[in-house]
Design a protein that fits this description.
Binds directly to 16S ribosomal RNA. InterPro entries: Ribosomal_bS20, Ribosomal_bS20_sf. There is one protein chain. By secondary structure, this protein is an all-alpha fold. The chain has one domain: Methane Monooxygenase Hydroxylase, Chain G, domain 1 (Up-down Bundle). The protein starts with a helix and ends with a helix.
Length: about 90
């Protein structure tokens, strides 16, 4: 348990930051999942449209250091190649 005022405040901040980062990470997973579902459905136009939105989400999460920039690049690359393979 936090003993000093500073430690108590940092604990509160950590809880708030965790909640915010978790929601962004969830949005990332959802965006990736939507692209995969469009690819599995075989609709290239819809997949490309969803991919554009997903790319924005992926970049935003990477800019905030919630995921590493290389992981973001890997996600975008694999999704793009999946769409190209349709």
């Amino acid at each position: 348990m936090a003993n000093t005022a500073q430690a108590r405040k940092r604990a509160r901040q950590a809880v708030a930051r965790n909640k915010h980062n978790s929601s962004l990470r969830s949005a990332l997973r959802t965006a990736i999942k939507r692209v995969r579902q469009a690819v599995e459905a075989g609709d290239k136009a819809a997949a490309a449209e969803v991919f554009q939105k997903a790319t924005s989400v992926i970049d935003r999460v990477a800019d905030k250091n919630i995921i590493h920039k290389n992981k973001a690049a890997r996600h975008k690359s694999r999704l793009a190649s999946a769409i190209k393979g349709l």
